[in-house]
Task: inverse folding
DNA sequence: GTGAACCGGGG
DNA sequence: GTGTACGGTTCAC
Protein backbone atom coordinates (compact mmCIF):
# COMPACT_ATOMS: atom_id res chain seq x y z
CA UNK A 1 0.00 0.00 0.00
CA UNK A 2 1.12 3.50 -0.80
CA UNK A 3 0.84 6.41 1.61
CA UNK A 4 -0.09 9.90 0.44
CA UNK A 5 -0.16 13.14 2.38
CA UNK A 6 -2.18 16.13 1.33
CA UNK A 7 -3.97 19.26 2.50
CA UNK A 8 -7.71 18.65 2.46
CA UNK A 9 -9.34 21.33 0.27
CA UNK A 10 -12.75 20.02 -0.73
CA UNK A 11 -15.10 17.06 -0.20
CA UNK A 12 -18.08 15.63 -2.04
CA UNK A 13 -19.53 12.29 -3.03
CA UNK A 14 -20.49 10.67 -6.30
CA UNK A 15 -22.64 7.61 -6.98
CA UNK A 16 -21.09 4.48 -8.52
CA UNK A 17 -23.19 1.30 -8.92
CA UNK A 18 -25.89 2.94 -6.80
CA UNK A 19 -23.40 3.29 -3.96
CA UNK A 20 -21.92 6.49 -2.56
CA UNK A 21 -18.21 7.14 -3.08
CA UNK A 22 -16.74 9.98 -1.03
CA UNK A 23 -14.14 12.10 -2.82
CA UNK A 24 -11.52 14.01 -0.86
CA UNK A 25 -9.74 16.67 -2.91
CA UNK A 26 -6.36 17.82 -1.76
CA UNK A 27 -3.10 19.48 -2.57
CA UNK A 28 -0.31 16.90 -2.42
CA UNK A 29 2.55 17.33 0.02
CA UNK A 30 5.86 15.58 0.38
CA UNK A 31 8.96 14.76 -1.64
CA UNK A 32 8.55 14.62 -5.40
CA UNK A 33 4.88 15.39 -5.13
CA UNK A 34 3.08 18.20 -6.83
CA UNK A 35 -0.42 19.05 -7.88
CA UNK A 36 -3.68 17.69 -6.62
CA UNK A 37 -5.08 14.36 -5.50
CA UNK A 38 -8.58 12.93 -5.62
CA UNK A 39 -9.07 10.27 -2.95
CA UNK A 40 -11.96 7.84 -3.35
CA UNK A 41 -13.48 6.18 -0.30
CA UNK A 42 -16.26 3.63 -0.88
CA UNK A 43 -16.51 2.49 2.73
CA UNK A 44 -18.79 5.09 4.32
CA UNK A 45 -22.58 4.91 4.56
CA UNK A 46 -25.18 7.44 5.77
CA UNK A 47 -27.12 6.96 8.99
CA UNK A 48 -29.60 8.59 11.34
CA UNK A 49 -30.61 7.95 14.94
CA UNK A 50 -34.09 6.74 15.88
CA UNK A 51 -35.47 7.38 19.36
CA UNK A 52 -38.06 4.73 20.31
CA UNK A 53 -41.45 5.71 21.80
CA UNK A 54 -41.07 3.09 24.48
CA UNK A 55 -37.44 2.58 25.51
CA UNK A 56 -38.27 -0.76 27.15
CA UNK A 57 -39.58 -2.10 23.83
CA UNK A 58 -36.76 -0.92 21.63
CA UNK A 59 -36.74 -4.33 19.92
CA UNK A 60 -40.28 -3.72 18.53
CA UNK A 61 -39.01 -0.58 16.95
CA UNK A 62 -36.25 -2.58 15.31
CA UNK A 63 -38.78 -5.05 13.86
CA UNK A 64 -40.87 -2.27 12.33
CA UNK A 65 -37.79 -0.79 10.72
CA UNK A 66 -36.87 -4.11 9.11
CA UNK A 67 -39.61 -3.63 6.48
CA UNK A 68 -37.69 -0.77 4.94
CA UNK A 69 -34.80 -1.15 2.58
CA UNK A 70 -32.06 -0.42 5.12
CA UNK A 71 -28.46 -1.53 5.42
CA UNK A 72 -28.43 -2.10 9.18
CA UNK A 73 -30.03 -1.21 12.50
CA UNK A 74 -27.93 -1.20 15.63
CA UNK A 75 -28.68 -0.29 19.25
CA UNK A 76 -26.40 2.38 20.74
CA UNK A 77 -26.29 4.58 23.87
CA UNK A 78 -26.30 8.33 23.35
CA UNK A 79 -26.48 11.34 25.65
CA UNK A 80 -29.58 13.39 24.86
CA UNK A 81 -29.63 16.72 26.73
CA UNK A 82 -27.94 15.20 29.75
CA UNK A 83 -29.99 12.02 29.72
CA UNK A 84 -28.52 8.69 28.62
CA UNK A 85 -30.78 7.00 26.07
CA UNK A 86 -30.81 3.75 24.16
CA UNK A 87 -31.43 4.62 20.52
CA UNK A 88 -31.15 2.90 17.15
CA UNK A 89 -28.48 3.83 14.66
CA UNK A 90 -30.12 3.21 11.29
CA UNK A 91 -27.76 2.92 8.34
CA UNK A 92 -28.91 3.48 4.76
CA UNK A 93 -27.51 2.43 1.42
CA UNK A 94 -27.42 5.89 -0.09
CA UNK A 95 -27.62 9.50 1.24
CA UNK A 96 -30.66 10.17 -0.92
CA UNK A 97 -32.55 7.34 0.80
CA UNK A 98 -32.71 9.48 3.93
CA UNK A 99 -35.07 12.22 2.69
CA UNK A 100 -37.12 9.46 1.00
CA UNK A 101 -37.46 7.22 4.07
CA UNK A 102 -37.25 9.48 7.09
CA UNK A 103 -40.95 10.45 7.07
CA UNK A 104 -41.92 6.79 6.90
CA UNK A 105 -39.69 6.02 9.86
CA UNK A 106 -40.96 8.96 11.86
CA UNK A 107 -44.57 7.84 11.23
CA UNK A 108 -43.97 4.39 12.72
CA UNK A 109 -45.87 4.06 16.01
CA UNK A 110 -42.84 2.67 17.80
CA UNK A 111 -40.73 5.70 16.79
CA UNK A 112 -40.79 8.84 18.92
CA UNK A 113 -38.37 10.95 16.92
CA UNK A 114 -35.52 10.83 14.44
CA UNK A 115 -32.25 12.67 14.92
CA UNK A 116 -29.29 13.77 12.80
CA UNK A 117 -31.31 13.19 9.61
CA UNK A 118 -30.29 16.47 7.99
CA UNK A 119 -26.49 16.34 8.16
CA UNK A 120 -25.07 16.46 4.61
CA UNK A 121 -23.16 13.29 3.78
CA UNK A 122 -19.78 14.92 3.16
CA UNK A 123 -20.01 16.73 6.50
CA UNK A 124 -20.90 13.51 8.28
CA UNK A 125 -17.87 11.89 6.66
CA UNK A 126 -15.28 14.41 7.83
CA UNK A 127 -16.78 14.65 11.32
CA UNK A 128 -16.90 10.88 11.79
CA UNK A 129 -13.35 10.42 10.48
CA UNK A 130 -11.93 13.24 12.58
CA UNK A 131 -10.76 15.08 9.46
CA UNK A 132 -10.42 18.86 9.34
CA UNK A 133 -10.33 20.74 6.02
CA UNK A 134 -7.07 22.66 5.44
CA UNK A 135 -5.29 20.25 7.74
CA UNK A 136 -2.98 17.52 6.59
CA UNK A 137 -4.50 14.13 5.95
CA UNK A 138 -2.70 10.84 5.35
CA UNK A 139 -4.28 8.05 3.34
CA UNK A 140 -3.21 4.51 2.57
CA UNK A 141 -4.34 2.67 -0.50
CA UNK A 142 -3.55 2.36 -4.15
CA UNK A 143 -3.10 4.77 -7.01
CA UNK A 144 -5.75 4.25 -9.69
CA UNK A 145 -4.17 6.65 -12.15
CA UNK A 146 -1.05 8.66 -11.71
CA UNK A 147 -0.97 9.99 -15.24
CA UNK A 148 1.49 12.81 -15.49
CA UNK A 149 0.47 13.41 -19.06
CA UNK A 150 1.99 16.49 -20.57
CA UNK A 151 -0.55 16.63 -23.33
CA UNK A 152 -2.33 19.89 -23.64
CA UNK A 153 -5.06 21.16 -25.89
CA UNK A 154 -3.98 22.42 -29.34
CA UNK A 155 -2.16 25.67 -29.06
CA UNK A 156 -4.05 28.79 -29.92
CA UNK A 157 -1.11 31.12 -29.66
CA UNK A 158 0.18 33.13 -26.77
CA UNK A 159 3.10 32.53 -24.45
CA UNK A 160 4.13 28.98 -23.54
CA UNK A 161 2.92 27.78 -20.20
CA UNK A 162 3.59 24.49 -18.52
CA UNK A 163 0.36 22.58 -18.00
CA UNK A 164 -0.57 21.52 -14.50
CA UNK A 165 -0.16 17.82 -13.73
CA UNK A 166 -3.37 15.84 -13.79
CA UNK A 167 -4.70 14.96 -10.36
CA UNK A 168 -3.60 11.67 -8.85
CA UNK A 169 -6.63 9.43 -8.35
CA UNK A 170 -6.30 7.30 -5.26
CA UNK A 171 -8.38 4.52 -3.79
CA UNK A 172 -8.49 4.48 0.02
CA UNK A 173 -8.05 1.09 1.66
CA UNK A 174 -7.55 2.24 5.24
CA UNK A 175 -9.44 5.07 6.90
CA UNK A 176 -7.75 8.41 6.36
CA UNK A 177 -5.94 9.81 9.36
CA UNK A 178 -5.36 13.44 10.30
CA UNK A 179 -1.80 14.47 11.09
CA UNK A 180 -0.36 17.19 13.26
CA UNK A 181 -1.44 20.35 11.52
CA UNK A 182 0.48 23.27 10.21
CA UNK A 183 -1.04 25.44 7.53
CA UNK A 184 0.77 24.99 4.22
CA UNK A 185 0.68 28.03 1.97
CA UNK A 186 -2.30 28.04 -0.35
CA UNK A 187 -2.12 29.40 -3.86
CA UNK A 188 -4.93 31.70 -4.78
CA UNK A 189 -5.95 33.22 -8.07
CA UNK A 190 -8.28 36.20 -8.32
CA UNK A 191 -10.19 37.06 -11.45
CA UNK A 192 -12.53 39.72 -12.73
CA UNK A 193 -14.52 40.04 -15.96
CA UNK A 194 -15.50 43.11 -17.96
CA UNK A 195 -18.58 43.08 -20.14
CA UNK A 196 -19.69 45.24 -23.06
CA UNK A 197 -22.67 47.14 -21.70
CA UNK A 198 -24.20 49.79 -23.96
CA UNK A 199 -27.61 49.31 -22.28
CA UNK A 200 -26.57 49.65 -18.64
CA UNK A 201 -26.28 46.43 -16.65
CA UNK A 202 -25.23 43.76 -19.13
CA UNK A 203 -27.50 40.90 -20.15
CA UNK A 204 -25.76 37.59 -20.70
CA UNK A 205 -27.90 36.68 -23.74
CA UNK A 206 -26.78 39.81 -25.58
CA UNK A 207 -23.61 41.36 -24.23
CA UNK A 208 -20.20 39.71 -24.73
CA UNK A 209 -17.41 39.42 -22.18
CA UNK A 210 -14.58 41.62 -23.45
CA UNK A 211 -11.86 41.22 -20.84
CA UNK A 212 -10.84 38.83 -18.08
CA UNK A 213 -8.08 39.76 -15.68
CA UNK A 214 -6.11 37.61 -13.24
CA UNK A 215 -3.94 38.14 -10.19
CA UNK A 216 -2.39 35.48 -7.97
CA UNK A 217 -0.76 35.72 -4.56
CA UNK A 218 2.42 34.44 -6.23
CA UNK A 219 2.76 37.43 -8.53
CA UNK A 220 0.94 36.24 -11.65
CA UNK A 221 -0.88 39.09 -13.41
CA UNK A 222 -2.63 39.05 -16.74
CA UNK A 223 -5.42 40.65 -18.71
CA UNK A 224 -7.06 38.76 -21.56
CA UNK A 225 -8.79 41.05 -24.04
CA UNK A 226 -10.66 40.71 -27.32
CA UNK A 227 -9.47 44.15 -28.44
CA UNK A 228 -6.04 45.69 -28.71
CA UNK A 229 -4.74 49.20 -28.48
CA UNK A 230 -3.68 50.33 -32.00
CA UNK A 231 -0.29 51.81 -31.15
CA UNK A 232 1.60 48.54 -31.39
CA UNK A 233 3.60 47.24 -34.34
CA UNK A 234 2.73 43.63 -33.54
CA UNK A 235 -1.03 43.16 -34.12
CA UNK A 236 -1.14 40.45 -31.43
CA UNK A 237 1.14 42.31 -29.09
CA UNK A 238 0.23 45.14 -26.86
CA UNK A 239 2.11 48.10 -25.48
CA UNK A 240 1.11 46.79 -22.07
CA UNK A 241 3.05 43.65 -21.17
CA UNK A 242 0.29 42.21 -18.96
CA UNK A 243 -2.26 42.25 -21.78
CA UNK A 244 -2.80 39.25 -24.03
CA UNK A 245 -5.03 39.82 -27.01
CA UNK A 246 -7.31 37.06 -28.30
CA UNK A 247 -9.34 36.89 -31.51
CA UNK A 248 -12.84 36.66 -30.12
CA UNK A 249 -14.95 35.93 -27.03
CA UNK A 250 -14.85 32.17 -27.57
CA UNK A 251 -11.07 32.20 -27.43
CA UNK A 252 -11.24 34.50 -24.42
CA UNK A 253 -13.23 31.88 -22.52
CA UNK A 254 -10.94 29.05 -23.69
CA UNK A 255 -7.93 31.05 -22.50
CA UNK A 256 -9.71 31.67 -19.20
CA UNK A 257 -10.01 27.92 -18.67
CA UNK A 258 -6.38 27.32 -19.74
CA UNK A 259 -5.14 29.99 -17.37
CA UNK A 260 -6.99 28.50 -14.41
CA UNK A 261 -5.66 25.05 -15.33
CA UNK A 262 -2.05 26.16 -15.75
CA UNK A 263 -1.99 28.40 -12.68
CA UNK A 264 -3.75 25.52 -10.89
CA UNK A 265 -4.77 27.50 -7.79
CA UNK A 266 -6.11 25.96 -4.58
CA UNK A 267 -8.42 28.92 -4.06
CA UNK A 268 -10.23 31.02 -6.68
CA UNK A 269 -11.24 34.49 -5.56
CA UNK A 270 -13.72 36.92 -7.00
CA UNK A 271 -15.83 39.87 -5.96
CA UNK A 272 -19.54 39.19 -6.31
CA UNK A 273 -18.44 36.23 -8.41
CA UNK A 274 -21.18 33.99 -6.93
CA UNK A 275 -23.90 36.11 -8.42
CA UNK A 276 -22.22 37.92 -11.31
CA UNK A 277 -18.93 36.67 -12.79
CA UNK A 278 -19.51 32.91 -12.69
CA UNK A 279 -23.17 32.97 -13.77
CA UNK A 280 -22.21 35.32 -16.62
CA UNK A 281 -19.23 33.20 -17.70
CA UNK A 282 -21.37 30.05 -17.60
CA UNK A 283 -24.11 31.67 -19.71
CA UNK A 284 -21.66 32.92 -22.34
CA UNK A 285 -19.71 29.64 -22.40
CA UNK A 286 -22.94 27.70 -22.93
CA UNK A 287 -23.90 30.05 -25.77
CA UNK A 288 -20.48 29.74 -27.45
CA UNK A 289 -19.98 26.03 -26.74
CA UNK A 290 -16.91 26.35 -24.55
CA UNK A 291 -16.47 23.57 -21.95
CA UNK A 292 -15.56 25.16 -18.62
CA UNK A 293 -13.23 22.49 -17.25
CA UNK A 294 -12.25 24.43 -14.16
CA UNK A 295 -12.62 21.71 -11.51
CA UNK A 296 -9.80 19.37 -10.49
CA UNK A 297 -11.92 16.53 -11.91
CA UNK A 298 -12.49 18.48 -15.14
CA UNK A 299 -16.00 19.50 -14.12
CA UNK A 300 -17.64 22.81 -14.93
CA UNK A 301 -18.82 25.20 -12.21
CA UNK A 302 -21.89 24.02 -10.32
CA UNK A 303 -24.28 26.35 -8.58
CA UNK A 304 -25.51 25.46 -5.16
CA UNK A 305 -28.31 27.25 -3.39
CA UNK A 306 -27.39 28.85 -0.13
CA UNK A 307 -30.49 30.57 1.12
CA UNK A 308 -32.04 32.40 -1.78
CA UNK A 309 -28.85 33.05 -3.67
CA UNK A 310 -26.52 30.79 -5.59
CA UNK A 311 -22.90 30.01 -4.90
CA UNK A 312 -20.54 28.86 -7.62
CA UNK A 313 -18.58 25.70 -6.78
CA UNK A 314 -15.39 24.76 -8.60
CA UNK A 315 -14.91 21.15 -7.59
CA UNK A 316 -11.60 20.34 -5.93
CA UNK A 317 -10.65 23.99 -5.57
CA UNK A 318 -12.24 26.50 -3.25
CA UNK A 319 -14.12 29.36 -4.85
CA UNK A 320 -14.61 32.24 -2.45
CA UNK A 321 -16.63 35.33 -3.21
CA UNK A 322 -15.00 37.95 -1.00
CA UNK A 323 -18.08 40.14 -1.20
CA UNK A 324 -19.81 37.82 1.28
CA UNK A 325 -16.84 38.10 3.66
CA UNK A 326 -16.60 41.88 3.47
CA UNK A 327 -20.34 42.18 4.07
CA UNK A 328 -20.16 39.91 7.07
CA UNK A 329 -17.07 41.29 8.72
CA UNK A 330 -16.84 44.96 7.69
CA UNK A 331 -19.43 47.30 9.07
CA UNK A 332 -19.81 49.75 6.22
CA UNK A 333 -22.85 51.35 4.63
CA UNK A 334 -21.72 50.04 1.22
CA UNK A 335 -19.48 47.21 0.18
CA UNK A 336 -18.33 48.15 -3.30
CA UNK A 337 -14.87 46.87 -4.15
CA UNK A 338 -13.67 50.46 -4.16
CA UNK A 339 -15.13 51.29 -0.74
CA UNK A 340 -13.82 48.09 0.84
CA UNK A 341 -10.35 48.66 -0.62
CA UNK A 342 -10.29 52.19 0.73
CA UNK A 343 -11.29 50.97 4.17
CA UNK A 344 -8.65 48.25 4.31
CA UNK A 345 -5.73 50.00 2.64
CA UNK A 346 -6.51 53.65 3.17
CA UNK A 347 -6.08 54.53 -0.46
CA UNK A 348 -8.37 54.96 -3.42
CA UNK A 349 -8.53 52.47 -6.22
CA UNK A 350 -8.42 53.21 -9.93
CA UNK A 351 -12.07 53.43 -10.84
CA UNK A 352 -14.11 53.64 -14.01
CA UNK A 353 -17.86 54.14 -13.62
CA UNK A 354 -19.58 50.89 -14.52
CA UNK A 355 -21.91 52.39 -17.10
CA UNK A 356 -19.01 53.95 -19.03
CA UNK A 357 -17.07 50.76 -19.65
CA UNK A 358 -18.44 50.36 -23.17
CA UNK A 359 -17.42 53.96 -23.95
CA UNK A 360 -13.82 53.33 -22.85
CA UNK A 361 -13.88 50.14 -24.92
CA UNK A 362 -15.27 51.74 -28.09
CA UNK A 363 -12.99 54.74 -27.90
CA UNK A 364 -9.83 52.63 -27.76
CA UNK A 365 -6.35 54.11 -27.43
CA UNK A 366 -5.63 55.73 -24.09
CA UNK A 367 -9.15 55.03 -22.86
CA UNK A 368 -8.80 51.32 -23.62
CA UNK A 369 -5.41 51.32 -21.92
CA UNK A 370 -7.06 52.82 -18.84
CA UNK A 371 -9.63 50.03 -19.00
CA UNK A 372 -6.84 47.41 -19.06
CA UNK A 373 -5.33 48.99 -15.96
CA UNK A 374 -8.69 49.24 -14.24
CA UNK A 375 -9.52 45.61 -14.93
CA UNK A 376 -6.16 44.30 -13.71
CA UNK A 377 -6.37 46.61 -10.73
CA UNK A 378 -9.69 45.07 -9.68
CA UNK A 379 -8.19 41.56 -9.78
CA UNK A 380 -5.14 42.73 -7.82
CA UNK A 381 -7.37 44.45 -5.26
CA UNK A 382 -9.28 41.18 -4.80
CA UNK A 383 -5.97 39.37 -4.14
CA UNK A 384 -4.96 41.99 -1.59
CA UNK A 385 -8.34 41.86 0.14
CA UNK A 386 -8.07 38.07 0.11
CA UNK A 387 -4.65 38.16 1.73
CA UNK A 388 -6.14 40.35 4.44
CA UNK A 389 -9.45 38.55 4.98
CA UNK A 390 -8.81 34.86 4.28
CA UNK A 391 -6.53 34.01 7.22
CA UNK A 392 -9.50 34.28 9.58
CA UNK A 393 -11.62 32.02 7.37
CA UNK A 394 -8.84 29.46 7.00
CA UNK A 395 -8.34 29.26 10.77
CA UNK A 396 -12.10 29.06 11.38
CA UNK A 397 -12.12 26.20 8.87
CA UNK A 398 -9.43 24.35 10.81
CA UNK A 399 -11.21 24.90 14.13
CA UNK A 400 -14.82 24.34 13.07
CA UNK A 401 -13.89 21.50 10.75
CA UNK A 402 -16.12 22.31 7.79
CA UNK A 403 -14.90 22.96 4.25
CA UNK A 404 -13.49 26.43 3.52
CA UNK A 405 -16.10 26.88 0.77
CA UNK A 406 -18.87 26.51 3.38
CA UNK A 407 -17.06 28.36 6.17
CA UNK A 408 -16.53 31.39 3.92
CA UNK A 409 -20.30 31.53 3.38
CA UNK A 410 -21.51 30.78 6.94
CA UNK A 411 -22.65 33.21 9.60
CA UNK A 412 -20.79 32.89 12.90
CA UNK A 413 -23.91 31.30 14.41
CA UNK A 414 -23.78 28.50 11.83
CA UNK A 415 -20.04 28.09 12.43
CA UNK A 416 -20.70 27.58 16.13
CA UNK A 417 -23.47 25.13 15.30
CA UNK A 418 -21.16 22.96 13.15
CA UNK A 419 -18.45 23.22 15.77
CA UNK A 420 -20.98 21.86 18.29
CA UNK A 421 -22.23 19.14 15.96
CA UNK A 422 -18.66 17.83 15.74
CA UNK A 423 -18.31 18.09 19.53
CA UNK A 424 -21.57 16.14 19.90
CA UNK A 425 -20.14 13.33 17.81
CA UNK A 426 -16.90 13.32 19.80
CA UNK A 427 -18.69 13.19 23.14
CA UNK A 428 -21.52 10.81 22.26
CA UNK A 429 -24.29 13.43 22.38
CA UNK A 430 -27.32 13.39 20.10
CA UNK A 431 -27.56 16.61 18.08
CA UNK A 432 -30.86 18.50 18.59
CA UNK A 433 -33.01 18.76 15.47
CA UNK A 434 -33.47 21.95 13.52
CA UNK A 435 -36.72 23.62 14.61
CA UNK A 436 -39.89 22.95 12.59
CA UNK A 437 -41.65 25.98 11.13
CA UNK A 438 -44.20 25.81 13.99
CA UNK A 439 -41.37 25.85 16.54
CA UNK A 440 -39.77 28.75 14.67
CA UNK A 441 -42.96 30.81 14.87
CA UNK A 442 -43.29 30.04 18.56
CA UNK A 443 -39.66 30.97 19.24
CA UNK A 444 -39.89 34.19 17.24
CA UNK A 445 -42.90 35.28 19.29
CA UNK A 446 -40.93 35.11 22.53
CA UNK A 447 -38.84 38.08 23.49
CA UNK A 448 -36.09 38.18 26.02
CA UNK A 449 -35.53 41.23 28.19
CA UNK A 450 -32.41 42.89 26.83
CA UNK A 451 -29.46 44.33 28.63
CA UNK A 452 -29.47 47.03 31.24
CA UNK A 453 -29.45 50.60 29.93
CA UNK A 454 -28.63 53.66 31.98
CA UNK A 455 -29.64 56.83 30.17
CA UNK A 456 -26.58 58.99 29.54
CA UNK A 457 -25.78 61.86 31.84
CA UNK A 458 -25.75 64.87 29.51
CA UNK A 459 -22.68 67.04 29.20
CA UNK A 460 -19.05 66.78 28.19
CA UNK A 461 -17.21 64.24 30.33
CA UNK A 462 -13.48 63.98 30.80
CA UNK A 463 -11.31 61.09 32.03
CA UNK A 464 -13.70 58.60 30.48
CA UNK A 465 -13.12 54.89 31.04
CA UNK A 466 -15.08 52.07 29.46
CA UNK A 467 -15.81 48.82 31.27
CA UNK A 468 -16.37 46.21 28.59
CA UNK A 469 -18.53 43.20 29.40
CA UNK A 470 -18.87 41.57 26.02
CA UNK A 471 -16.07 39.14 26.78
CA UNK A 472 -17.72 38.43 30.12
CA UNK A 473 -20.74 36.62 28.64
CA UNK A 474 -18.78 33.45 27.86
CA UNK A 475 -17.59 33.48 31.48
CA UNK A 476 -21.16 33.85 32.74
CA UNK A 477 -22.19 30.79 30.70
CA UNK A 478 -19.28 28.82 32.14
CA UNK A 479 -19.47 29.99 35.76
CA UNK A 480 -23.25 29.47 35.98
CA UNK A 481 -23.16 26.31 33.82
CA UNK A 482 -25.86 27.72 31.51
CA UNK A 483 -26.76 24.89 29.17
CA UNK A 484 -30.01 23.22 28.08
CA UNK A 485 -28.71 19.92 29.47
CA UNK A 486 -27.95 21.54 32.85
CA UNK A 487 -31.48 22.83 33.48
CA UNK A 488 -32.86 21.23 36.63
CA UNK A 489 -35.55 21.53 39.24
CA UNK A 490 -33.38 19.99 41.94
CA UNK A 491 -31.33 21.36 44.80
CA UNK A 492 -27.79 22.74 45.01
CA UNK A 493 -27.74 24.69 41.76
CA UNK A 494 -27.09 28.10 40.26
CA UNK A 495 -30.31 30.14 40.32
CA UNK A 496 -30.62 32.99 37.83
CA UNK A 497 -31.64 36.45 39.11
CA UNK A 498 -35.21 37.60 38.33
CA UNK A 499 -36.34 34.36 36.67
CA UNK A 500 -35.07 31.75 39.13
CA UNK A 501 -34.06 29.29 36.40
CA UNK A 502 -31.98 26.52 37.96
CA UNK A 503 -28.77 25.08 36.52
CA UNK A 504 -26.91 22.07 37.88
CA UNK A 505 -23.48 22.80 39.31
CA UNK A 506 -22.27 19.44 38.02
CA UNK A 507 -21.59 17.94 35.58
CA UNK A 508 -20.33 20.68 33.26
CA UNK A 509 -22.99 21.25 30.58
CA UNK A 510 -22.40 20.59 26.90
CA UNK A 511 -22.27 24.27 25.86
CA UNK A 512 -20.20 25.54 28.85
CA UNK A 513 -17.76 22.68 28.21
CA UNK A 514 -17.41 23.72 24.57
CA UNK A 515 -16.89 27.40 25.43
CA UNK A 516 -14.42 26.39 28.13
CA UNK A 517 -12.40 24.43 25.59
CA UNK A 518 -12.42 27.36 23.17
CA UNK A 519 -11.23 29.79 25.84
CA UNK A 520 -8.56 27.37 27.08
CA UNK A 521 -7.31 26.80 23.53
CA UNK A 522 -7.16 30.55 23.08
CA UNK A 523 -5.07 31.02 26.24
CA UNK A 524 -2.73 28.25 25.10
CA UNK A 525 -2.32 29.84 21.68
CA UNK A 526 -1.68 33.25 23.18
CA UNK A 527 1.14 31.83 25.30
CA UNK A 528 2.56 30.05 22.24
CA UNK A 529 2.52 33.42 20.47
CA UNK A 530 4.65 34.91 23.22
CA UNK A 531 7.19 32.08 22.99
CA UNK A 532 7.42 31.96 19.20
CA UNK A 533 10.08 33.85 17.28
CA UNK A 534 8.82 32.90 13.84
CA UNK A 535 6.81 35.74 12.28
CA UNK A 536 4.76 33.46 10.03
CA UNK A 537 3.92 31.17 12.94
CA UNK A 538 2.99 34.13 15.11
CA UNK A 539 0.61 35.46 12.47
CA UNK A 540 -1.04 32.03 12.07
CA UNK A 541 -1.40 31.74 15.85
CA UNK A 542 -2.82 35.24 16.00
CA UNK A 543 -5.44 34.33 13.42
CA UNK A 544 -6.26 31.21 15.41
CA UNK A 545 -6.84 33.13 18.60
CA UNK A 546 -8.94 35.72 16.72
CA UNK A 547 -11.04 32.90 15.27
CA UNK A 548 -11.50 31.38 18.74
CA UNK A 549 -12.45 34.78 20.15
CA UNK A 550 -15.06 35.18 17.43
CA UNK A 551 -16.52 31.76 18.20
CA UNK A 552 -16.57 32.32 21.98
CA UNK A 553 -18.28 35.70 21.64
CA UNK A 554 -20.90 34.27 19.30
CA UNK A 555 -22.31 31.88 21.91
CA UNK A 556 -23.82 34.75 23.81
CA UNK A 557 -27.03 35.50 21.95
CA UNK A 558 -27.29 32.15 20.17
CA UNK A 559 -29.62 30.66 22.80
CA UNK A 560 -32.12 33.25 21.60
CA UNK A 561 -31.64 32.67 17.85
CA UNK A 562 -34.77 30.91 16.67
CA UNK A 563 -32.92 28.69 14.16
CA UNK A 564 -30.24 27.55 16.61
CA UNK A 565 -30.39 23.82 17.34
CA UNK A 566 -29.52 24.43 21.01
CA UNK A 567 -32.07 27.29 21.35
CA UNK A 568 -33.23 27.79 24.92
CA UNK A 569 -35.35 30.65 26.19
CA UNK A 570 -34.44 29.82 29.80
CA UNK A 571 -30.72 29.87 29.03
CA UNK A 572 -31.08 33.10 27.08
CA UNK A 573 -33.04 34.87 29.82
CA UNK A 574 -30.60 33.68 32.45
CA UNK A 575 -27.58 35.06 30.60
CA UNK A 576 -29.06 38.53 30.24
CA UNK A 577 -30.34 38.45 33.83
CA UNK A 578 -26.91 37.59 35.21
CA UNK A 579 -25.42 40.10 32.76
CA UNK A 580 -27.61 42.92 34.08
CA UNK A 581 -26.82 41.79 37.61
CA UNK A 582 -23.07 41.91 36.96
CA UNK A 583 -23.30 45.23 35.14
CA UNK A 584 -25.23 46.93 37.94
CA UNK A 585 -23.05 45.43 40.67
CA UNK A 586 -19.87 46.43 38.90
CA UNK A 587 -21.20 49.96 38.44
CA UNK A 588 -21.90 50.12 42.17
CA UNK A 589 -18.42 48.79 42.95
CA UNK A 590 -16.85 51.30 40.58
CA UNK A 591 -18.56 54.13 42.44
CA UNK A 592 -16.89 52.91 45.65
CA UNK A 593 -13.56 53.12 43.80
CA UNK A 594 -14.12 56.71 42.73
CA UNK A 595 -15.76 56.28 39.32
CA UNK A 596 -19.03 57.86 38.31
CA UNK A 597 -20.97 55.90 35.66
CA UNK A 598 -22.41 58.24 33.03
CA UNK A 599 -23.88 55.79 30.54
CA UNK A 600 -24.45 52.05 30.39
CA UNK A 601 -25.80 49.79 27.66
CA UNK A 602 -25.92 45.99 27.83
CA UNK A 603 -22.26 45.15 27.28
CA UNK A 604 -20.60 47.71 29.48
CA UNK A 605 -20.60 51.20 30.83
CA UNK A 606 -18.78 54.50 30.57
CA UNK A 607 -17.62 56.23 33.72
CA UNK A 608 -15.62 59.28 34.62
CA UNK A 609 -12.98 59.14 37.30
CA UNK A 610 -13.79 61.64 39.99
CA UNK A 611 -11.31 60.49 42.61
CA UNK A 612 -11.59 58.37 45.74
CA UNK A 613 -14.52 59.03 48.00
CA UNK A 614 -13.83 59.99 51.59
C1' DG B 1 -47.18 51.34 13.92
C1' DT B 2 -46.72 47.00 11.60
C1' DG B 3 -45.82 43.51 8.58
C1' DA B 4 -44.45 42.69 3.73
C1' DA B 5 -41.29 43.56 0.20
C1' DC B 6 -37.03 44.69 -1.31
C1' DC B 7 -32.06 45.05 -1.47
C1' DG B 8 -27.16 44.19 -1.41
C1' DG B 9 -23.02 43.87 -5.39
C1' DG B 10 -21.45 43.15 -10.22
C1' DG B 11 -21.00 45.99 -15.77
C1' DG C 1 -28.95 17.66 -2.02
C1' DT C 2 -29.18 13.91 4.88
C1' DG C 3 -30.57 21.53 1.16
C1' DT C 4 -33.46 26.60 1.07
C1' DA C 5 -29.48 33.41 4.11
C1' DC C 6 -29.79 37.60 6.59
C1' DG C 7 -30.20 41.91 8.46
C1' DG C 8 -31.40 46.45 7.42
C1' DT C 9 -34.39 49.65 5.25
C1' DT C 10 -38.28 51.18 2.66
C1' DC C 11 -43.03 50.44 1.16
C1' DA C 12 -48.02 49.92 1.55
C1' DC C 13 -51.75 50.11 4.39
Result:
Amino acid sequence: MITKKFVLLDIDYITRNQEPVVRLFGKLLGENEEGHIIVLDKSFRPYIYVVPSDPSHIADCNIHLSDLNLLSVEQVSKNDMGELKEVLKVTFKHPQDIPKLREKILNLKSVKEIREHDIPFYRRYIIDHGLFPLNIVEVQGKVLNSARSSQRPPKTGGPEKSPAPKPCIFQVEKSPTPLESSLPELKFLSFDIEVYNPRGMPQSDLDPIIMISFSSNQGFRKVLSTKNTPDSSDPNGSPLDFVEVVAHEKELLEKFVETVQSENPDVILGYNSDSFDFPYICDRAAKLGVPLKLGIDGSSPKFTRIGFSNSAMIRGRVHIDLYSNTRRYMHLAHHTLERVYLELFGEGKLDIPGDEIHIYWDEGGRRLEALFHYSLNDAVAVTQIGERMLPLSTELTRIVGQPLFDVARMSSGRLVEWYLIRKSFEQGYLVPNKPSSAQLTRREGKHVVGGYVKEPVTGLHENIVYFDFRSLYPSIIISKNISPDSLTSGEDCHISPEYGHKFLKEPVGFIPLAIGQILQDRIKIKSQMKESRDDYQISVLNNQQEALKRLANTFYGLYNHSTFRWYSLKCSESITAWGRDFLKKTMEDSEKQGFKPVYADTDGFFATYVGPMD
Q: What stands out?
A: The longest strand of chain A covers residues 2-16. The mean pLDDT of chain A is 92.
